[in-house]
Amino acid sequence: MNVLQIPRMIFSFSEGWDDLIRFHPSIARLFALVVLPLSLLPPAMIYYAGGSYGEVFVRGVTPEQWHVAAGIFFLAELLTVPIMAWLIHLVARANNMTTDYHACFTLAAIAPVPLWISSLTLFVPSLAVGVVVGALGLLCSVGLIYRGVFALFSMREDVKAFQMATVIAGAGLFMWLILMQIVLIR
């Protein structure tokens, strides 16, 4: 799995996906090489931005509060991926699809990559820039979910794939909003 293939995977049903299916990395390998390192980006950026210019994002929050929020956010992210894999598995079963947890975990591990990378915009002390790039990251994640449903679950029905991708993206957005609340509440 080459993370540099992610941009092509957003727009293609086969590029990158075929390699991922062929190499079939284990859940532990996906977690160790994709989820763990990339999920460190948002907390690191929250830690940095909150400590450097947190007032730009939320007034009255101390750098120490940002730092605690970053740690909680990281733990919550690590829990979110397997929870999303479980939800994807439920959605697949509800749509009478036979798929294994591995394919669901693979999709749950790949889909948030654009969101994790979009956190790098926190180097720029601007809420507007963060919102715009975050929205683009969300759209890219939705593209990965839609293409991933086709590739990983061997689907060929557009309507069913779109329905599944919509439900999965909705659940993912809900989880991401919960993660954002963790940061804002702290």
Description:
The chain has 186 residues and is mainly α. The protein has one domain (27-49, 61-185). It is 76% helix and 0% strand. It is built from 9 helices and no strands. The chain has helices at residues 6-11, 17-23, 27-39, 41-53, 63-94, 101-110, 113-118, 127-152, 158-185. Helix 6 (101-110) runs antiparallel to helix 8 (127-152). The protein starts with 5 loop residues before the first helix and ends with a helix. The mean pLDDT is 90.
Write a brief caption for the model.
The chain is mostly helical. Helices cover 76% and strands 0% of the residues.
Order of helices and strands: HHHHHHHHH
Q: Hey, roughly how much beta strand do the residues contain?
A: under 5%
Biggest sheet statistics:
none
Mean pLDDT: 90
Q: Helical percent range?
A: over 70%
Number of helices: 9
Rough shape? Answer: elongated
What count of structural domains?
1
Q: Could you tell me the radius of gyration in angstroms?
A: 17 Å
| Low-confidence regions | none
Cα(first) to Cα(last) distance is 35 Å
Structural class: mainly alpha
Number of strands: 0
